[in-house]
């Protein structure tokens, strides 16, 4: 699955920084068989720091809980693939071993307290048809498997088929321009080590809006980029823009997901809403959307800054709108208006192959800038790319705390990097963002 999103989910549904964790008391362990999965639930009195891995010959799952201890009267109930439960000490850690009836793939996550239950460490087991090898270790510090996979960018060429989009003064059709830009963007992304692109459409076909972002989710994309060309009644309107989902749009999409969760596919990261009560499902979805919107905004800022080097920017700030294609709750998404096709000059630019390549290179550079700072765990970028200093243009309503949180650094580090004596900042100011706090 997309490791950036998997990490986001693991963090959003219960992981806490190591400094905030305590010696966890394990109160009970229960195992259920449901929908072809064996689900072991470890009930604890607080958020655990843990790791889970599989072993073969014989098949078993090992759960190590840092400074864990068993509560008095602890009990367990094997079921499904779990034939037996054993426990012991591994140094200061509590080790729980699940003896399995067959080879299985394991995945784990933590659920925060609900009205009925406290913290729960959930290990889901899916039976496999081949002999198992030692599985990936999931920890608070590294919640994704190791490896050096490519970061996956899903590129959506707007409109298509029966929907031509906007028409330029000389007859250029938006659906053709967007496909040409999308193909060029894929080419320059694929040429970069550690990045790979997929096209949502690669021909003149019409795809419903929801199908576009759903395809990106199925392909486990780390980022969804929708390409468009703007139009206006006045021919002098010009410049590119970058949009992310509005809060209103996110809220309406959340309502739809919650209403349809009985039939909906699980969220990326392996967390299904269908078996959660209303309150827990709402919290999980809200946390996932919040992290996704933050990431969307951060990458959009990098892209619009890079695009300013190619041509006019219609709006210097990231825009927010209720576009259907941006509604994925678990894949960071942005929509790029590459220019006004209704403007004769910009229509001519968009029809020019050399301009489209410069545009694609700028978009790619913005994406690279973002992932150089926030690479998904387990990717080539995470293992090999050294973060570089970033810059942030202050928008109306932003505070230093908001900017620091968005970039994953401390307020004090931004103050120090910019020589600020206080938290007061001016709209339009360009701040240096240090590599780390």
Name its key features.
single chain, 437 residues, alpha/beta, Immunoglobulin-like, Aminopeptidase, Membrane-bound Lytic Murein Transglycosylase D, Chain A, 3 domains, 6-stranded mixed beta sheet, 26% strand, elongated, LysM
Structure description:
It is a single chain. This protein has 437 residues and is an alpha/beta fold. It has 10 helices and 18 strands. The two termini are 29 Å apart.
Number of strands: 18
Total DSSP helices? 10
Q: Briefly, what CATH class of the largest domain?
A: Alpha Beta
Instruction: Bin the helical content.
Output: 25-40%
EC number: 3.5.1.28
GO molecular function, one term: N-acetylmuramoyl-L-alanine amidase activity
Catalytic activity: Hydrolyzes the link between N-acetylmuramoyl residues and L-amino acid residues in certain cell-wall glycopeptides
GO cellular component, one term: outer membrane-bounded periplasmic space
Summarize the topology:
Layout: H1 3-12, E1 25-34, E2 37-44, E3 50-55, E4 60-65, E5 69-70, E6 76-77, E7 82-90, E8 93-100, E9 104-111, E10 119-127, E11 151-157, H2 174-190, E12 195-199, H3 209-218, E13 223-230, E14 241-245, H4 247-259, H5 278-307, E15 319-321, E16 333-340, H6 344-351, H7 353-373, H8 380-384, E17 390-393, H9 400-407, H10 411-418, E18 430-433
Parallel strand pairs: 1-5, 1-6, 11-12, 11-13, 13-16, 14-15
Antiparallel strand pairs: 1-2, 2-10, 3-4, 4-8, 7-8, 9-10, 14-16, 17-18
């Amino acid at each position: 699955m997309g490791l950036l999103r998997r990490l986001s989910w693991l963090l959003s549904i219960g992981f806490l920084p190591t400094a905030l964790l305590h010696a966890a008391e394990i109160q009970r362990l229960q195992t259920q068989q449901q929908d072809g999965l064996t689900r072991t639930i470890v009930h604890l009195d607080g958020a655990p720091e843990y790791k889970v891995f599989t072993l073969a010959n014989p098949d078993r799952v090992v759960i190590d809980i840092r400074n864990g201890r068993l509560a008095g009267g602890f009990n367990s109930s094997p079921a499904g693939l779990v034939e037996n439960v054993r426990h012991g000490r591994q140094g200061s850690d509590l080790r729980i071993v699940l003896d399995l009836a067959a080879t299985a793939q394991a995945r784990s996550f933590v659920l925060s307290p609900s009205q009925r239950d406290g913290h729960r460490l959930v290990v889901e087991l899916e039976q496999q048809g081949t002999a198992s090898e030692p599985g990936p270790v999931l920890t608070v510090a590294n919640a994704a498997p190791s490896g050096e996979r490519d970061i996956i960018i899903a590129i959506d060429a707007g409109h298509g088929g029966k929907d031509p989009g906007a028409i330029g003064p000389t007859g250029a059709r938006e659906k053709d321009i967007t496909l040409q830009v999308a193909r060029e963007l894929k080419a320059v992304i694929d040429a970069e080590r550690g990045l790979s692109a997929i096209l949502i459409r690669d021909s003149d076909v019409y795809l419903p809006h929801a199908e576009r972002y759903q395809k990106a989710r199925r392909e486990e994309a780390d980022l969804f980029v929708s390409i468009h060309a703007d139009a206006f009644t006045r021919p002098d309107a010009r410049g590119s823009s970058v949009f992310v989902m509005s809060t209103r749009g996110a809220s309406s999409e959340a309502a739809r997901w919650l209403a349809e969760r009985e039939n909906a596919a699980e969220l990326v990261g392996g967390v299904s809403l269908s078996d959660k009560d209303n309150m827990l499902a709402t919290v999980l979805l809200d946390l996932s959307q919040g992290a996704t919107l933050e990431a969307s905004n951060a990458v959009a800022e990098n892209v619009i800054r890079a695009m300013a080097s190619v041509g006019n920017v219609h709006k210097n700030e990231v825009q927010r709108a209720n576009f259907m294609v941006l509604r994925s709750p678990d894949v960071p998404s942005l929509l790029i208006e590459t220019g006004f096709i209704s403007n004769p000059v910009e229509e001519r630019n968009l029809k020019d192959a050399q301009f489209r390549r410069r545009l694609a290179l700028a978009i790619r550079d913005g994406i690279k800038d973002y992932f150089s700072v926030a690479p998904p765990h387990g990717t080539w970028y995470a293992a090999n790319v050294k973060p570089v200093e970033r810059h942030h243009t202050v928008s109306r309503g932003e505070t230093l705390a908001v900017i620091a949180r968005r970039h994953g650094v401390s307020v004090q580090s931004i103050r120090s990097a910019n020589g600020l004596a206080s938290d007061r900042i001016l709209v339009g100011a360009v701040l240096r963002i240090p590599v780390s706090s």
